[in-house]
Sequence to fold (470 residues):
Amino acid sequence: MSFLAEKNIFISPEDKALQEVYINSIKNSLSGQTKYAMVETYGCQQNVNDSQRIEGMLLEMGFTLTDDREKADVIIFNTCAIRENAHERVYGNLGALKHVKARKPSLIIGICGCMVQQPQIAKRVKSKYRHVDLIFGTHVLWKFPPLLSEVMEHRERVIDISGDGVICEGTPVNYDGGAKAFVSVMYGCNNFCSYCIVPYVRGRERSRMEEDILSEIDMLAKSGVKEVMLLGQNVNSYGKDRGEENGFANLLKKVCLIDGIERIRFMSSHPKDISEELLRVMAEEEKICKSLHLPLQSGSSKVLSDMNRHYDREKYMGIVKKAKELMPDLSLTTDIIVGFPTETDKDFGDTLSILREVGFDSIFSFIYSPREGTKAAEWENVSTKEEIDKRFRTLLDQQNEISYKLNLRHEGNVEKVLVEGQSKTDPDMMTGRNYANKIVNFKGDESLVGQIIDVKITKAQTWILYGELK
Ligand code: SAH
Ligand code: SF4
Ligand code: F3S
Fold:
């Protein structure tokens, strides 16, 4: 800890104490009144996990959580910056809150997260959305209690997007109480892929200490959690910031030893950093789901180089081959960007062909969105919007066929399913997830929620598997 403390990766004890002092002072000021708060989350699982921290702090302050904007006394938007449409959704929703605040002037509106960590966006929100009371960035999440207290006491607008990536252990977290939980193992990213805003808004990579992660998971297991998803922008770099090799593989082995945890997943793995050791640990450890999210982005080596991804098509295929050798049932998923500035029809053809070659169970596909401040944002696009839209549709059509075909391989299997609850699409059915994180619907009752049970898969569709209780 002392080595890291010198590098200021952890917040100082004084700042940590400040967090607690303000949590308590807000609690005292509410003095038993019922006040409602809500947190609306945009973006990735890391943001969901951050929102659970904001909710955790709000609960400790004595607020009651709600999903109802009309009822809320405090509304916090935790935002994402990854694509322009993420920004647009936030602007739309912020606009809508103007009327809510006009009806209820005491309402406190806050906005935090990746979007407002960009100074030009914080400035825009400040000048155009006068009804926003609090703007705070990703580096000062821990500071939410003192910042909120300042707004509550002085009824002045407060803006803080300062700081440079610290880790704050011990912030209260509002886990949702289910059998699954997210656990961030590291924050930030060092990779600077040429299209991506994340390193600018999340800062450099910093890894939590192993003992902090393990004690959090142990606590979760004791409270009934059976499945953990370990999170980081590039989990394969876990521990590298303090000079450890194979830090993530070693961490995984230790998580496997925790009683009560039956399933372990992780994301994301950057292909340039995935080690054979990690694949071996995955293959050997029963608790680790044989399911790997390995973002590819493009099948063209030229585009991958322009993206600054540090691997090419051959290297990626080599990893897939090795992983499938070690884990024959492996389920693979990936991220694809369509319409990167230098992508031609031929490059896109390479993406289609690699998707057929690998056989991904599912893909997350995105149309390229220029992000201010990134390298690629300065490049003209060689393709038109129409060409890119057409590519996107072709990609989805091809992938739907592949996903359906691959889903057929589950038919007839008896698979372990972690039961989540009633199916949203079919109230007569219960729903859960198999090892590949695929939705499995089956007839059963509420008493199964939170349990891992055997289900025989009887029918596969593109997005859902159907089964019956064994
Ligand atoms: N750290 C992860 C990715 C996190 S962002 C990794 O490198 O694997 C999730 C996905 O959003 C990325 O994998 C990428 O496919 C997509 N993405 C990121 N920036 C984008 C942009 N500017 N336009 C479109 N998609 C983008
Ligand atoms: Fe973005 Fe690349 Fe970092 Fe992923 S690895 S968060 S895509 S910069
Ligand atoms: Fe979005 Fe920030 Fe996650 S930009 S994808 S919320 S790290």
